[in-house]
Amino acid sequence: MKHISLRDLDVARIGLGAMGMSHGYTGAGSDDAESIRTVHRALDLGVTLVDTAEVYGPYTNEELVGRALKGRRDDVVLATKFGLISHTGRDGDADSGPANIRIAVEGSLTRLGTDRIDLYYQHRVDPGTPIEDTVGALAELVAEGKIRHIGLSEAGPDTIRRAHAVHPITAVQSEYSLFTRDPEARVLPVLRELRIGFVPFSPLGRGFLTGTVRSTDQFAANDFRADNPRFTEENFRHNLRLADEVAAIAARIGATPAQVALAWLLAQGDDIAPIPGTKRVARVEENTAADAVTLTDDQLATLAALPPAAGNTHNEAQMRLLER
Q1: Low-confidence ranges of the chain (pLDDT < 70)
Q2: Among 25, 56, 121, 176, the one annotated catalytic
C-alpha cells in the first residue's frame, strides 16, 4: 500500500477505525474474535494506522485493540483519544484538563498493553480548558515518551493555530467524505499552511456511501444513526441520490461504491489518511483495495459536483462539540 506523511509520521494511506467493533454500530452485538481477525487481516494487507478511543465502549474498544495487537505492536501506528470522559469528577461534556489527561493516558496505556501511544488525540475541544494548557500537558507526555505525536479531533482553525504554537500538531481528525465536505472551506487550508496531516473519519458516510444502506429500518435501536439527522426520512431520501451516483461510477469502472468513495478521498491530497471503520475481514479487504483504484479527472469532477448531503452531521448535543 502507498504511504503518506502526517507531518512527520509515516502511515499507510488507508487506516482502520476500530470504533464499530464495540461501539456505535453494534446492532445485535459484537464478535470480538472476528474483530481481532479483521485487525490482523488489515495489518497483513499493509494497514499501519489503527484508531480507537477510551470513550468507545467505554474502554472496551481499547482493550480489544490491545488484545488484537499483542505480538504485533511494532507493526502499528497506534492512535487513541482522550477528553470525553472526566476522571476528575468534572461536570460537562469534555475534560481536557492536565490532571485528567494524566489519568486518561495511564488508563489507555494499560488497556492497550503498550508503553507508548503513537498519536494521542484530544477527542473534542474542551471549552473549560485553554487549548494551550491541554497541549502543554501533552507536550510533557511527549518528553516523557508516553506519547509520540499530538492530534486534535474536530477542532476549528483558531484552536488548531493556538495548539500548534505550543507544540507541533501532527494530525487533525475530522469527518470528511463525499457525504461531509465541511473541512474543505476552513480546516484543510490551515492544515496545509501548517503542514499538519489530515485523518478523515467516517470516510464512507457512516456506511451510506457503500450502497448497502437503503432504508432507515435497517438500524438497530442502539445504532447511533437511528437518531442522526442525515438518516431521518426526508433527508435520507434526498441523500440516496448521492449514494446512487457513487454506485453508478463504481459499476462503470468495476469497483465497489466504497472503493470509489475512498479513491475520491485519496485523490484530495497526499496528506490525507482516511480510517474507514469495519469489524469484518471482507470489508477491510474491500476498503484497502481502494488503494489501487484511480478515478479519471471527469469522474472526480462529477463526484465533486454532487449536491451536499441534507441534514446536520450529528444530533444537536453532538453538534455543540464540533469546531470549538
Answers
A1: 24-29, 224, 314-319, 323-324
A2: 56
